[in-house]
Please model this.
Amino acid sequence: MVIREDDLTGTEIRSLIGEHLQGMQLHSPPESIHALNLDGLRKPDITFWSVWTDGELMGCGALKELDARHGEIKSMRTATSHLRKGVAQKLLQHIIAEAKHRGYERLSLETGSMEAFEPARRLYTRFGFEECRPFAHYTNDPNSVFMTMKL
Model:
């Protein structure tokens, strides 16, 4: 697996982000969808990575700088054909390492509370994330689970 910074212009990544947004719409009410579209992911405070093997896109994820000491994980997604191959684990390790390298003291995320998001919540818990109160611009939402970890 190769993880590389991505400019979000490739056909494959645009398709995967589209799949990600469709999945959010399928499992979450509109007011509880916090996934970013391509324009949202191109903001200067966001670094976006894609995961590849043998020229095939396996997954993606991003790190948003909330402030000089706090980062947020965004747009974690594994391509359907690569589920349960360790893609999310490898990418999460990469994002955590980058957050530490940047000197962040905390890394947080928002994910869904529905059953479809249970595998993601288990992954984050395995890596040391714990549920927390809403952070940054988020507010209490029964459809969201907020998680954080100290670095």
Observations:
- The chain has one domain: 2-150.
- The helical segments are 11-27, 38-41, 87-101, 118-126.
- The domain at 2-150 is CATH 3.40.630.30 (Aminopeptidase).
